[in-house]
Design a protein that fits this description.
Strand content: 15-25%
Shape: globular
Structural class: alpha/beta
CATH superfamily of the largest domain: P-loop containing nucleotide triphosphate hydrolases
Largest sheet: 7 strands, parallel
Number of strands: 20
Length: 449
């Protein structure tokens, strides 16, 4: 229980702390919670151990963050909540959601692929909520030896994926060190879950919405005369038209072949796989989110845990070996209350796995190759650490380059830099007007990504 003292009230005012659900939802532009989120909120507030099953994109992150934040102590200067995730992309996504909620509580994400010095800088003043991949969290616990005594809530987000990719030992080490836990929350997008004993669940309360939204998904089978299916892929994209979607491949070298073929045919796209540098992966997602590219060619790394917009389709260029990965891929489209289509490209002599059945054939119509997007992405060398806001960047562009609102699209602010979607016809004009100019008090470089 939090004791309300004059100092407590003063601290809340100084740090602008808010746990009001209405205010948080208003900042996020959400009018009403979904049934799954309502049920999860109530369960997390009243139960010790919770397992939340719900499809990718259904709002699980907000479902566990809302009740968690309502139970944070603003006076505490130590970590109170630890959130373990399987990928750096999901770590960054959860961190961004917390920041977008505007509660005033400090949140930081740590993950492999970035310098340890960045972690040290972020953890110099401990956050109320620490998010990270199990490997990096375990490493920071060993190196920094920060206090764990105030961590009362543990979230294992997409915990089955963390186990699957080899984080079992790290997770076990971390959980064993958390001696004061009062609440454990596990999330997954499928029912295929085996919870290890080291997690320490005691009669968990399960919230199962794993089948929600499945009825909105259409699955179509597209036959290919050729084994490599490349021509069929281009025909399928032309059939679909200008829509945002993901093409899933099983191997990195296949992504390179597909990418080269799409490039030859003038189909704008980007790639996403584990062999890419973290910066390149982040920038690929930025361009995908802001519409610079409508197509992402990816491995199963993009099947879950990514902050990407609503997709109209996904294409299985290769089918995954395991059914649960097939489910996760499909979960990128047809999200809650939205329709979407999963296309399966099948060589005529190829056999479908047993988990695929009752699927309709799709006859492709002849259509022109999808046109390239009219958006481009600009990189600006100033970000969150420079106290730059989206309003600052918009004002900077409108004032210096004399543009209209329709010329500027999505703006994303990162710690060290910012990214802006602008109309392709305005790119050179904007760079000429803004490059080496001062944004607030910092001289910035502006370039096309």
């Amino acid at each position: 229980m939090i004791i309300v003292t004059p100092y407590f009230i003063y601290l809340c005012r100084m740090t602008e702390i808010t746990t009001s659900q209405d205010k948080i939802l208003a900042k996020l532009g959400i009018g009403k919670l979904k049934p799954m989120q309502e049920e999860a909120l109530l369960a997390i507030e009243n139960k010790s151990d919770i397992v939340l099953l719900s499809p990718t994109g259904s709002g699980k992150t907000l479902a566990f963050l809302l009740p968690i934040i309502s139970q944070l102590d603003p006076v505490c200067k130590e970590i109170q909540v630890l959130i373990l995730v399987p990928s750096r992309e999901l770590a960054m996504q959860v961190e961004q959601v917390v920041r977008s909620m505007g509660t005033g509580f400090k949140a930081n994400a740590v993950y492999g692929g970035r310098a340890g010095a960045e972690d040290k800088k972020d953890l110099k003043h401990l956050p109320a909520i620490l998010i990270g991949t199990p490997g990096r969290i375990a490493d920071r616990m060993r190196r920094d030896k920060f206090s764990l005594r105030s961590i009362h809530t543990l979230v294992l987000d997409e915990f089955d994926k963390s186990l699957e990719i080899g984080f079992k030992d790290d997770m076990s080490e971390i959980i064993d060190a958390l001696r004061h836990l009062k609440k454990r929350i596990l999330t997954s997008a499928t029912q295929r879950i085996e919870i290890p004993d080291f997690v320490g669940l005691n009669e968990p309360h399960t919230i199962d919405y794993s089948e929600e939204g499945v009825a909105q998904l259409s699955m179509k089978l597209v036959l290919s005369e050729a084994k490599d299916k490349l021509d069929t892929l281009v025909e399928t994209l032309s059939h679909i038209g200008n829509q945002p979607g993901i093409i899933f491949c099983n191997f990195r070298d296949s992504i390179e072949r597909v990418s080269e073929f799409l490039e030859v045919h003038g189909i704008s796209h980007d790639c996403f796989h584990g062999g890419m540098e973290q910066k390149d992966r982040e920038q690929a997602l930025i361009k995908f989110r802001n519409g610079t590219h409508q197509i992402l060619v990816a491995t199963d790394l993009a099947a879950r845990g990514l902050d990407i917009p609503e997709l109209k389709f996904i294409i299985h260029y290769h089918l995954p070996i395991k059914e649960h990965e097939f489910i996760h891929r499909n979960g990128r489209t047809a999200r809650m209350d939205k329709a979407g289509t999963a296309y399966i490209l099948k060589w005529e002599e190829e056999e479908l796995p047993a988990f695929i059945h009752d699927i309709d054939y799709e006859k492709l119509k002849e259509a022109p190759i999808p046109k390239a997007s009219s958006w481009r992405t600009l990189h600006i060398t100033a970000g969150r650490r420079d106290k730059i806001s989206k309003g600052d960047i918009a004002g900077f562009i409108f004032k210096k380059a004399d543009l209209n609102k329709e010329d500027v699209g999505i703006i994303e602010i990162k710690p060290e830099s910012s990214y802006v979607a602008v109309k392709s016809s305005k790119v050179n004009r904007i760079i000429k007007a803004l490059n080496n100019e001062k944004l607030k008090k910092k001289k910035v470089r502006v370039s096309q990504l």
